[in-house]
Design goal:
alpha/beta; globular
Length: about 290
């Protein structure tokens, strides 16, 4: 009989990657999402994922979603749903519910939190990690780098003066780790399929390392059109998205210690940024801007 895993965030970027890879690996996947009827939910259902709604502010609702499962994969709510304190509360609720039902393996998708405290998103993830450290729950913590797939959802690429413009609120030469949703899913399947090897471990998920200038160069080469990276001033973030100011200030200055070695040891050779662009981003950009393949 196939084992069952409950995946929170099963229609999101990273949780969706985990749900798809686990379903492909033969797991029975309970996908937890806020929207069980939208396009993303229908696409997940077509891949064999059974979707349920759960209220992450209600521990009884979480317990119902995870009872009887062999493992839980928890990708927390997106920034479009809850801000920092809300993410922390919901993640801690999930941890405590897992303790209450005696969950054999809880996999928490955190982030490369480093010294982050009190910063939007990464600060809340660190708070959840600190709650986990207070328990004896059998846990694996995955710390993925910046999502390559953010270019598909949150960082639209525009054209100005005949060039593609990649605008980000970090210095154009600041390098950070990168990973695709596909490889987050591969990592999830690897650790959940082999719990005794990975329980108690925290694993850095970095597939590649690059700066906005590096990414712009690669995007331009793969699309066949000049591209340039532009730094959005932090003052603009403060004006238009004040909740994100401290986060981007931290991202602009954090020491880069990201290393693809841990992910490579876990899943084999991951998808680097150039090949991700070639597969996932460049075809749509060529169509959008009328560039011949």
């Amino acid at each position: 009989m196939a084992k069952t895993v409950t995946v929170f965030g099963a229609t999101g970027t990273s949780g969706g990657g985990a749900a798809r890879k686990l379903a492909a690996a033969g797991w029975t996947v309970r996908g937890i999402t806020r929207d069980t009827a939208g396009d993303k939910a229908r696409a997940a259902a077509e891949q064999g994922i059974t979707l349920f709604a759960a209220d992450l502010d209600d521990r009884a609702s979480i317990r119902k979603a995870i009872e009887g499962a062999d493992a839980v994969y928890f990708a927390g709510p997106s920034l479009l749903n809850r801000w920092d304190i809300g993410q922390a509360v919901q993640g801690i609720n999930a941890v405590d519910a897992a303790i209450e039902v005696g969950m054999p393996h809880f996999v928490y998708q955190s982030a490369l939190t480093g010294d982050a405290r009190g910063y939007l998103s990464v600060g809340s993830k660190r708070a959840i990690e600190e709650r986990i450290a207070e328990t004896e729950l059998p846990v694996t913590i995955l710390q993925p780098a910046w999502f390559m797939d953010n270019f598909l959802n949150y960082f639209p690429i525009n054209e100005q003066d005949g060039k593609l413009v990649i605008a980000m609120a970090i210095p154009v030469d600041k390098v950070n780790g990168l990973i695709s949703a596909e490889d987050i899913g591969n990592a999830a399947a690897a650790v959940i399929t082999n719990p005794h090897t990975y329980i108690g471990r925290t694993i850095d998920l970095t597939a590649d390392i690059g700066s906005p200038a590096d990414m712009a160069r690669i995007i331009g080469e793969e699309v066949g059109k000049d591209a340039v990276a532009v730094e959005v001033p932090l003052e603009a973030i403060a004006q238009h998205w004040p909740e994100g100011y401290d986060l981007y200030k931290w991202l602009s200055t954090r020491p880069t210690q990201d290393d693809p070695g841990s992910l490579t040891a876990l899943i084999g050779k991951p998808l680097d940024f150039r090949h991700w662009v070639r597969l996932k981003l460049a075809p749509g950009l060529r169509e959008k801007f009328g560039v011949a393949a």
